[in-house]
């Protein structure tokens, strides 16, 4: 550090209201915040604006909000074919639907969904329409006289939505939808003994 005599020499010549200033070097901690801030600003500018490694905070918030809105609308009670297709690619929803399916539906449609007492749900043939909304409607209302129970009151909308997502996780968007001939329960299993 400076000794008192050196400091005397470093007093600046001007005087305001009798107050004089030393002419000292800026302290290191102060210089470090200055150079640090400049280095940070350059890094920040390169990272976000020049090379676009990360989304700028404003844009990041915007993207997050859009994702949240999409997820909320996909989960809202107003279902569309679009939202059901979206959910059919959402692992959590599909897993939940699979659990419901195995517990309630697999006894007739088989765990593989390939059909036994009830028809296959993985082929292109549908009895009551093959869009996600039509399938949701079939499940909700059932076809009592044909042996398909009414699931609406049993499962509620949330679980039906998840089951539909699970079924459509086995399908591709845009694949053909064909009208199935009337279903004869067990026809898949009976095929080998059809001659009897
Ligand atoms: C007791 C047996 C049984 C159970 C349990 C059952 N189904 Fe069915 N399901 C059927 C039968 C039989 C049909 C055919 C109805 C017809 O001929 O219209 C059918 C038809 C369907 C269809 C219409 C397929 C098409 O081609 O349009 C869907 C979708 C379906 N079931 C989904 C489900 C789901 C999801 C569950 C569980 C929540 C379930 N089923 C539980 C017997 C069952």
List keywords for this structure.
single chain, 196 residues, Cytochrome Bc1 Complex, Chain D, domain 2, 2 domains, 9 helices, binds heme C
Short description:
The chain has 196 residues and is mainly α.
SSE class? mainly alpha
Total helical segments: 9
H/E order of the elements?
HHHHHHEHHEH
Q: Please state the CA-atom Rg, rounded to the nearest Å.
A: 35 Å
Q: What is the total domain count?
A: 2
What would you call the shape? rod-shaped
Pfam families: Cytochrome_CBB3, FixP_N
Keywords: Heme, Iron, Membrane, Metal-binding, Transmembrane, Transmembrane helix
InterPro entries: CcoP_N, CcoP_N_sf, Cyt_c-like_dom, Cyt_c-like_dom_sf, Cytochrome_c_Oxidase_Subunit
Transmembrane segments: 29-47
Descriptive overview:
The chain crosses the membrane at residues 29-47. It comes from Chthoniobacter flavus Ellin428. Residues 92-171 form the Cytochrome c domain. Keywords: Heme, Iron, Membrane, Metal-binding, Transmembrane, Transmembrane helix. This is Cytochrome c class I. This protein is mostly helical. The protein folds into two domains: 29-75, no CATH class; 79-187, Cytochrome Bc1 Complex, Chain D, domain 2. Helices cover 53% and strands 2% of the residues. The protein has nine helices and two strands, in the order H-H-H-H-H-H-E-H-H-E-H. The protein has helices spanning 4-9, 28-50, 57-75, 81-87, 91-104, 106-109, 132-141, 152-168, 187-190, and strands spanning 125-126, 178-179. The chain has a two-stranded parallel ribbon. Helix 4 (81-87) packs across helix 8, helix 5 packs across helix 8 (152-168) and helix 7 packs antiparallel against helix 8. The longest helix has 23 residues, at 28-50. It is rod-shaped, with a radius of gyration of 35 Å. The protein binds heme C. The site of heme C (HEC) has 25 residues, from helix 6 and helix 7.
């Amino acid at each position: 550090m400076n000794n008192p005599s050196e400091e005397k020499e470093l007093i600046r010549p001007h005087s305001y209201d009798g107050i004089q200033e030393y002419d000292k070097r800026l302290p290191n901690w102060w210089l470090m915040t200055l150079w640090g801030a400049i280095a940070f600003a350059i890094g920040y500018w390169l990272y976000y604006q020049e090379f676009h490694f990360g989304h700028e905070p404003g844009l990041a918030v915007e993207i997050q909000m859009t994702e949240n809105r999409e997820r909320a609308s996909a989960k809202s009670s107003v279902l569309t074919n679009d939202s059901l297709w979206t959910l059919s690619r959402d692992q959590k929803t599909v897993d939940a639907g699979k659990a419901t399916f195995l517990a309630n539906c697999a006894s007739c449609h088989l765990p593989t969904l390939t059909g036994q007492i009830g028809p296959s749900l993985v082929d292109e043939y549908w009895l009551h329409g093959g869009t996600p909304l039509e399938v949701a409607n079939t499940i909700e209302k059932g076809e009592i006289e044909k042996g398909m129970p009414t699931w609406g009151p049993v499962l509620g909308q949330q679980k039906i939505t998840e089951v539909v997502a699970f079924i459509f996780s086995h399908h591709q968007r845009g694949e053909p939808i064909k009208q199935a001939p009337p279903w004869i329960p067990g026809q898949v299993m009976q095929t080998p003994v059809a001659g009897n």
